Amino acid sequence: MPVLNRIADFAPEMTRWRRQLHQMPELEFECFETAAFIAARLREFGVDEIHEGIAKTGIVALIRGRGEGRVIGLRADMDALPMPETTGKDYASKVPGRMHACGHDGHVTMLLGAARYLCETRNFAGTVALLFQPAEEEGGGGEVMVKEGVMERFGIDEVYGIHNVPNLPFGHFHTTPGPIMAAVDTVYVTVKGRGGHAATPHETIDPLIAVTGMVQALQTIVSRNVFALDQFVLSVTQIHGGSASNVVPDEAWFSVTVRSFTPEVRDLAEKRFREIVDGHAAAYGVKAEITYERGYPPTVNEADCTAFAADVAREVSGAAAVLDDAGREMGAEDFAYMLEARPGAYLFLGTGPGAGLHHPQFDFNDEAAPVGATFFARLAERALPVE
Fold it and tell me: How far is Cα 121 from Cα 357, in angstroms, rounded to an integer?
């Protein structure tokens, strides 16, 4: 594994950074301690500019090379998840009910490692913009940073990001041109009827029967409305209603997650969803209130940037460890907003065996941080070559 020698030299220090970050998980836009830690390291490295308070706690730092050139953006997310940790590690979360269960502490460490190397070597012509982003898990910090004008303000031409993947072989990179992660929409439906005694259902308007019909019929969007070769998921994830075995409730509600890759399928799904729910409401004599929330758009890699990033990954991990047509993931990622604003690519980095993402026993593999840092550093050097 050809990790850059200089990055290998300070890899133990990277492990200390990551484990310190792991102990202080913060949620959404409230990443104040994390941002302070990042800014302190960046000042030690000697970056040229640090811009704090973007999207509340985000940071953009600039490293200038040996001459004029383009600006390449490298992004790492910072936030944790509202869930307890059960790893038992001596560096486990010190905040009850919060943990870094998605490896964003590792992503920050990768980018900090690349930043230290690039500050020391400056073996590129142009500028590297380091984008430390809050609120990926909830809140869409990537969208906020884009709306606050980071691409225009710092003249970013292309943008790249990576995400760790446990149980993908260590050091392997997976990516694909075009859509790589899905759009995510969340829907809440409240169904209102008329409650009463369960022994006299003819005197009620039962919302539970209506919900049952709606939930079953919504599956026909997948099986009968969306083209079979268009990847699409509609999952009902909650159904709530009732309080006793002999009572028909006044109302019930359910929630749904919808995943798609194209605007056409996304629009079709919402249209049919509303038609099915409204039609069933009329048929059962209930009232239905639909809250349809459009979430993150699909994460779409630009083809040339993806090919370039995959070539850099081959340099780091070898040709056999890089798959550049890996297919799509139904998960969602707010790096999508940055890729809507600028061309670029998103890649997955294997970290070897371990508990999966968002699991209470997840722990980022510290040996992967130098690999990710080397990828970021070499991507910058190759994208911004010194003449």
Answer: 34
Task: Give pLDDT, residue 327.
Answer: 87
| Cβ-Cβ contacts under 8 Å for 241 (sequence gap 6 or more) | 191, 207, 208, 211, 249, 251, 252, 253
Residues in the chain where the model's pLDDT stays below 70: 1
Tokens 């994208």 locate to 383
Q: Any residues with CB less than 8 A from the CB of 202 and at least 6 apart, and which?
A: none
Same domain, 101 and 122: yes
Domain of residue 190, CATH code: 3.30.70.360
Q: Are residues 281 and 235 in the same domain?
A: yes
Q: Compute the distance between CA of residue 166 and CA of residue 104 in angstroms, rounded to an integer.
A: 13
Quote the tokens at residue 72.
């390449």
Q: How far apart are CA 56 and CA 142, in angstroms?
A: 12
Place of tokens 């964003």: 104
Tokens for 235?
A: 């999952």
Q: Which helix (H) or strand (E) holds 5?
A: helix 5-9
Per DSSP, 221 falls in state: I
Give the model confidence (pLDDT) of 158-214 as tens digits.
999 999 999 999 999 999 999 999 999 999 999 999 999 999 999 999 999 999 999
Give, in order, the Cα–Cα distances in Å from 233 to each of 104, 123, 178: 26, 45, 19
pLDDT of residue 376: 98
**What is d(CA 132, CA 52) in angstroms, rounded to the nearest whole number?**
10
Assigned token pair, 384: 């911004």
Planar angle of CA 139, 349, 29, nearest 5 degrees: 15
338 conformational bin, left if phi > 0, alpha if psi -120 to 50, beta if neither: alpha
Same domain for 22 and 126, yes or no, is yes
Domain with 224 in it: 183-294
